[in-house]
Write a structure and sequence with these properties.
Distance between the termini: 50 Å
Structural class: alpha/beta
Radius of gyration: 22 Å
CATH topology of the largest domain: Rossmann fold
CATH superfamily of the largest domain: ANL, N-terminal domain
Oligomer: single chain
CATH architecture of the largest domain: 3-Layer(aba) Sandwich
Number of domains: 2
Shape: globular
Helix content: 25-40%
């Protein structure tokens, strides 16, 4: 079972069908295959073998996706990097993932460790090869996606061909993806939403059109782009959709081809979802739920008649063959099924977190309504969702506490006007607060979505009677401060 099996069938059936479009570039299924085989041949010459890791340090788009396919052709595992991350963070991920090579653009960056090959994609793309795709076992790793980690460093979630194929195939059937579809792609490749854009799409014969990155800050232009490009289906995060409903001039667009919007990664506030549903009355909306460790394990086709501004929407019913149960003690959702990760990647090996019966503890508190649908009630731990990304406050705290003059700190989430939450920090300094220097230090070490929205100095942190930090009081203190 290879993640690319369905792609090969589509390529054989219609090789000249459009596969990926990026601005004025277009690659057919035939051209994706040809370019991927060429890059795979170069990787093989560099002694990349099945099971090795290959990091992809490229902007979201055609060059990156062809490099990912090339890696999978060899039976290797791709590790997508967010090249907008600070160099220190990229270096830490590379040192943990231990890739044999990194495919990037241009010269070798300073953050690339010495024993890793750097390959410039511009020197690879026109290579010709008849290299055959390698057979892989279902449990072979296909990707390692790095998210924020509670231990103070990014955490690698290792996904097998079995796990990713399970989701890709389920989504293709559940959402009726086919050759007539033109699917918008905006999810970064290090984000698990990209599995749909990369593999469900071509596995079911669709065409992928990459949304220009600059449009995320221009909702009116984004809605015009979706309409002009005749997009039929889009999988994205609630914050983008809420922004689109608010300032996207949706009433001025026809959207005569758009039939499905899928969203995941964060809670979609019901009032904002209701507004989107009102603007797009003929579009089917779907709420997909699941931590990266499970991909999607639950989903809810949005029932417009049930949208109540005072009530959160359900996360729905099991998906991807998942089995779900609720811990009777604390209400935590437990998941078992074929889309589960293989484990956490750490320094060349896997760490499993499943119990002896194979259940994964999600850390999410849920319940069931009178119809049996699952309802989400937030995290049991301190993890935040910021613009669809997972953010562990402990990782931010660890960096703040390393800054000279910081004695203690506490990071919590505060409401984000666009939906979800943003990290904010209360800090105890030993002497005169140096907020400017601290903010500059954090900018050099954290991606933008992890930057604290507020840095507030205080004389001391509040504590509970048991001696633990009172994060609820810290949150109230930070929410009272102006942005």
């Amino acid at each position: 079972m290879s993640l690319l099996d369905r792609f090969f069938l589509q390529w054989a059936a219609a090789p000249d069908r459009a596969a990926f479009i990026q601005d004025d570039r277009l690659l057919t299924y035939r051209e994706v295959d040809r370019r991927a085989r060429g890059i795979a041949a170069v990787l093989e010459e560099r002694s990349i073998r099945p099971g090795n890791r290959v990091a992809i340090a490229l902007e979201r788009g055609i060059d990156a996706v062809v490099s990912i396919y090339a890696t999978l052709y060899l039976g290797a595992c791709y590790v997508p990097l967010d090249i907008r991350n600070p160099a220190r963070r990229l270096q830490g991920i590379v040192e943990d993932a231990l890739p044999r090579a990194i495919i990037g653009a241009g010269g070798r960056p300073d953050w690339v460790v010495r024993n890793v090959d750097w390959l410039d994609v511009d020197q690879l793309s026109e290579r010709q090869s008849s290299l055959a795709s390698r057979a892989v076992a279902p449990e072979a790793l296909a990707a390692i996606l790095y998210t924020s980690g509670s231990g103070g460093t990014p955490k690698g979630i290792a996904l097998s061909h079995r796990a990713m194929t399970t989701f890709a195939d389920w989504a293709g059937v559940a959402f009726s993806v086919g050759a007539e579809d033109r699917i918008a792609s905006l999810a970064p490749f290090h984000f698990d939403l990209s599995v749909f854009d990369l593999f469900t799409t071509l596995g079911f014969g669709a065409t992928v059109d990459f949304v220009p990155s600059e449009l995320t800050l221009a909702p009116s232009r984004l809605s015009a782009w979706l309409d002009d490009r005749k997009i039929t289906c889009w999988y994205t995060v609630p914050s983008i959709l809420a922004f689109l409903a608010f300032k996207g001039n949706l009433a001025d667009r026809s959207f005569d081809k758009l039939t499905r919007i899928l969203f995941a990664g964060d809670v979609f506030p019901t009032p904002q979802l209701t507004k989107l549903a009102r603007f797009l009355p003929t579009v089917n909306l779907f709420n997909l739920y699941g931590p990266t460790e499970t991909n999607v394990c639950c989903y809810w086709p949005v029932d417009r008649a049930r949208l109540d501004p005072a009530q959160p929407i359900p996360i729905g019913v099991p998906a991807c063959g998942a089995r779900l149960r609720i811990d009777e003690v604390n209400g935590e959702l437990l998941v078992k099924g074929p889309s589960l990760m293989s484990g956490y990647w750490k320094q060349g090996g896997l760490e499993t977190v499943f119990d002896r019966n194979g259940w994964y503890r999600s850390g999410d508190r849920v319940s069931r309504n009178e119809t049996g649908e699952f309802l989400y009630h937030g995290r049991l731990d301190r993890m935040l969702k910021c613009s669809g990304y997972r953010v562990e406050p402990a990782e931010i705290e660890a960096l703040i506490c390393r800054f000279a003059g910081v004695e203690q700190c506490a990071v919590v989430g505060i409401p984000d006007p666009a939906g979800g939450r943003r990290p904010a920090a209360a800090i105890v300094f030993e002497g005169e607060p140096n907020l400017f220097g601290l903010a500059r230090s954090l900018r050099s070490q954290l991606p933008s979505y992890m930057q604290p929205a507020r840095l507030i100095p205080c004389d001391h942190l509040p504590y509970l009677p048991n001696g633990k930090i009172d994060y609820q009081t810290v949150g109230k203190m930070l929410r009272s401060e102006p942005l």
